[in-house]
Every structure is written in structure tokens, then in C-alpha cells.
Amino acid sequence: MIIETLDKEDIFLIHQQTIEEFGGELGHFDNTDGKVQSILSQQYPSFGYEKYPTIFNKASMLMYFFIKGHCFRDGNKRVGLTVAKVFLGINGIELDLTNEQAIQLTLGIASCTLRNIQIDKFIFEDLTSILEDNSYYEE
What we know:
Shape: globular
Number of domains: 1
CATH topology: Four Helix Bundle (Hemerythrin (Met), subunit A)
CATH architecture: Up-down Bundle
Number of helices: 6
Low-confidence stretches: none
Mean pLDDT: 92
Oligomer: single chain
CATH class: Mainly Alpha
Structural class: mainly alpha
């Protein structure tokens, strides 16, 4: 199965659309391009090693790092959630979270203080399980 990926333009468009839909400050920082590119590069294998091999690992990683990376002046939690939903969607998977689940999930990620190996455990086990359990393949 070939996994479709997102690019930098997709991320900036997602940010713009979430700000337009939900309100907030449109804008980014001087280092936003680099941060976005760094996060997106983790979708791909590096030196023959794929750190995030499954589609749900990749979606979890994107959600986590866009929320925690503070790439934008506003809307980072919304961007993280939307990026994961769009990423799964372009790969034929519908993420079906209630508003309450989405709020709890994004606030939980934003407030967590995990470090290094704990982040990987959270992405691979906890967040991946939540996304898998709340998704279905589109027909």
C-alpha cells in the first residue's frame, strides 16, 4: 500500500482554513518553515529505517508534533488534529472523534510533559491506539 503524504503547502492551507473557520490569529514565526519541514520529513524512511511505519503511527506523529511544535502563532492544537484527520482521509481512513474526544485528546497532548523515549511510547502505543479505535476505512 502506498501511503499518500502531506507537504508544506498542505499544512499552511490547513492552518489558514482552521483559523478562518474557528477564529484566531493567522500567522507564523520566522522558523515555522523549518519546523513544518522537519515534522513532515519524519513521514519518510531515513537511511533505510522507517521510524513511523504504519499509517496510524504517522498520523499520531503528525498530530503530536504539530500540537507540541508550536509552528504557528495560534491554532496549533486544531492544526495537529486536522492534519491527522486529513492525512488519514487522503489514505482512505475516516477519523471519527466526537468534539469532546477531540478536545480531550488535543488538550492532553498539549499539556503532557513527556520526554524522549516516553514520547515514542506515547505515539506508538497510546495515540496510535486512540486513532485506530476511532477510525474506519472509507468505502
